[in-house]
Amino acid sequence: MAKKHAFHISLVIFAVMESKIKYIRKIPSWKVVIGIAGLGVGLFGLISLNIYGLVPLLFGFMMLKSDGSEIDLEANQYRKLNILMGFCFGKWQALKSPEYVSVFNTTEDITVRALTAETSNSFPIIVLNLFHQNNKKLTVYKTKDIKDAFNVASHIADALLIDLLDATEKNDFKWVDKDILRKKGELVYID
Questions:
Q1: Would 150 be classed as within a structural domain?
Q2: Which of 19, 40, 68, 145 has its Cα between 20 and 30 A from that of 127?
């Protein structure tokens, strides 16, 4: 009877879930402020019939640009998103036989260029990859918060009925018990 009850609960959980899972990288507050200021200055410049108003206008748009991913569970499709001021753009592609979702640490390089100089900085970031169709990799989410990463990974793994792999430590990959993660918020590994 316990198995029957547990099956019934999981059916209710999945029946209530959305048919599309969308994750969008949050734009930092300082970028929003600078982006809106750039748009304001650019629009003022264009209204004044100054062609140089395009520069801050384009800069403002670039500061307000974000990215993410969307998975359509009913149609078995995914798309990488480019988001500009709330409008999402991206081409749908087939998601064939998802296998597992992995969470791992890496670095993201940001290069800043000026007229005579260039510098590159590396920042730690946690990436979620969805492996499908014989280990094809799809990056579905990036964050700096480990708890957020595992919450999102657990949501994707539950929705697609696939496993969750903790690859946050180099050369030490472990399968996560999704039930304990969901119920208690603790990482417990399966042997």
A1: yes
A2: 19
Helix (H, G, I), strand (E, B) or coil at 54: helix
Query: What HEC string does 145-165 produce?
Result: CHHHHHHHHHHHHHHHCCEEE
Predicted pLDDT at 148: 87
Q: Is 58 inside a domain boundary?
A: no
Task: Give the domain extent around 124.
Answer: 96-191
List of the chain residues with pLDDT < 50: 1-17
- pLDDT value for 13: 34
Total tally of structural domains belonging to the chain:
1
Backbone dihedral region for residue 12 (phi beyond 0: left; psi -120 to 50: alpha; all else: beta): alpha
